[in-house]
Design brief:
mainly alpha, two-stranded antiparallel sheet, 13 helices, 78% helix
Amino acid sequence: MDYFGDPAQWLPFTFAMLMGVSILIYVVLDGFDLGVGLLFPFADEDEKDNMIAAIGPFWDANETWLVLAVGLLLVAFPAAHGTILTALYLPVAVMLIGLILRGVAFEFRVKAPLSYKSRWNWAFFVGSLMTSLSQGFMLGMYVMGLTWTLPHVAFALLTAVFLTIGYSFIGATWVIHKAQGNLQLKAIDWAKGGIWGLVLGISAISIATPFVSSRIFDKWFSFPEFLWLSPLPILSAVLVAWLWQMLKTMPFSGDRFSWLPFGAATALWTTAFGGMAYSFYPYVVPEKLTIYESASAPESLFIILVGTIFVLPTILAYTVLAYYVFRGKATELRYD
């Protein structure tokens, strides 16, 4: 059968790829603004204002990618959507509460009387923490096949902690890029601590994933697949070493290339995500449903694809425009 000539083959693959890219963009972009919220307790009041200014123009656009990813899952893979959301109903509810709390705190901390500002700062931190932990827990449960056993829940709790630290790390690299002076120096120290949590998290998932099923084990450790895939862990190790060396020598003279740690962190997240995508393909629900079994009818997918061709470039263009317009160092965030 001609793979690319059969809509029942290439349409599910196309939507799986679009959904994966949307998730990756969300994890990187909303990951850094969640990370900024997680770092709030370590900053003083003026620094918190600067940190909010560093994410203020972007955070709404960042969350759009989560909506797109979940929307694609619902319309393109409805059977998988039902299975995943049913298994993860509780952490999804916690995540939504956290996102709502973050949004409310983000707006109210500026507009509320000064005596209430510290409370909204804590609400912003708690909302960021709830969102990060719940996403990490969902990741762990997904890797373990969405089955609620004590060892699987323990692993999910571990990934919840590591993903939260990973978000704080990429948030710190964003602050390095957008801040100046003492706050930038603090962010460098935060990143030095957070990078090891990210490394431990990636290592834990990388070690556990091949043992979830013999199929995944064979995909990684059979010959010659082992040789073809070896650049992924090697590249990850190189990126970690490069990041650590950069952080030790920052800030650079004249604050040049302050974006490099964030760029390297993004590349590290991308390699980790690519490894996971390779491990689980073609399954959208690990070892239960493939993208082809759970996909909508080709006729429906084609109609959805037409809409996606218009929607996706619009979201991408808006995101790129926001980052271009508000490039450079963060300035004071004002609402008047």
